[in-house]
Amino acid sequence: MAEPLLSVQGLDAFYGGAHVLGDVSFEVHDEQPVAVIGRNGMGKTTLCAAIMGITPPNVSGSIRFRGDEILGKPSYKIAKRGIGYVPQGRRLFPSLTVDEHLRMVSGRNGARGGWTPARVYELFPRLGERKRNGGAQLSGGEQQMLAVGRALLLNPKLLIMDEPSEGLAPTVVEQLVETCKSLEQEGVALLLIEQNLGVATALAERQLVMVAGSIAVETTAEQLLNDPAGQRRFLGVEPVAQA
């Protein structure tokens, strides 16, 4: 098998004396989206922080991206290497317009890749209609579109999305799923962090179930959907009805 795009090996993370991540190991390859699924408080966002170098906890282990060690590097260098990040809660600037959000990133990124603000507006026409509105004036779905568009302007090889369906209406979630599928067809690999089983299984066949800071089970979307007991045990949810 080819070298993984992202390789996390033996990752431990502490906040003070709290052991948040314990010996987390997995790989992401170009052709295979991966979902890390679990309930709130299981360490999923800490995993994102460790990968991206954002307010990092005390970490040890190895995180390699395209063969290079990135653990402990500053977040801007990690992003420049080709990892886009859509954080939980979107984290937009209320005082900046949609267009200012996008041009701020594209201006720093130059013309080294294929994504531009104009192309983001093609992907999300609603953002084009709202380009002069501030971040705080957007709906939840529009904010998520902007957060995704902002990350795409880095022309990432890997897109990490932390709880992208959180707080969105079902119709908006469906649109988000279709957008992610289209990005995958364009060669953007996906690491999805979710607690919504329906979204996770719609986007990734590989499912990593996180419990108490560790990968408790690696399974497939089909197996997880057909395991009601596992859904209750690991996710604390009633089984998802299949179409």
Salient structural properties:
single chain, alpha/beta, Rossmann fold, 4-stranded antiparallel β-sheet, 10 helices, 10 strands, globular
How do you describe this structure in short?
The protein has 243 residues and is an alpha/beta fold.
CATH superfamily: P-loop containing nucleotide triphosphate hydrolases
Tell me roughly what share of residues is in helical segments: 25-40%
User: What is the CATH class designation?
Assistant: Alpha Beta
State the secondary-structure class.
alpha/beta
Globally, the shape reads: globular
Structure description:
The protein is of the alpha/beta class and 243 residues long. The chain has a single domain, classed as Rossmann fold (3-Layer(aba) Sandwich), CATH 3.40.50.300. It is built from ten helices and ten strands. It has helices at residues 44-52, 75-80, 98-109, 117-123, 125-129, 140-152, 170-185, 197-203, 221-225, 228-235; strands spanning 6-15, 18-28, 34-37, 58-65, 68-69, 83-86, 158-162, 189-194, 206-211, 214-220. The strands form two sheets. Strands 6-7-8-3-9-10 form a six-stranded mixed β-sheet, sandwiched between helices. It has a four-stranded antiparallel β-sheet with strand order 2-1-4-5, covered by helices on one side. Strand 7, helix 7 and strand 8 (189-194) form a beta-alpha-beta unit. Helix 3 packs parallel to helix 6 (140-152). The two termini are 34 Å apart.
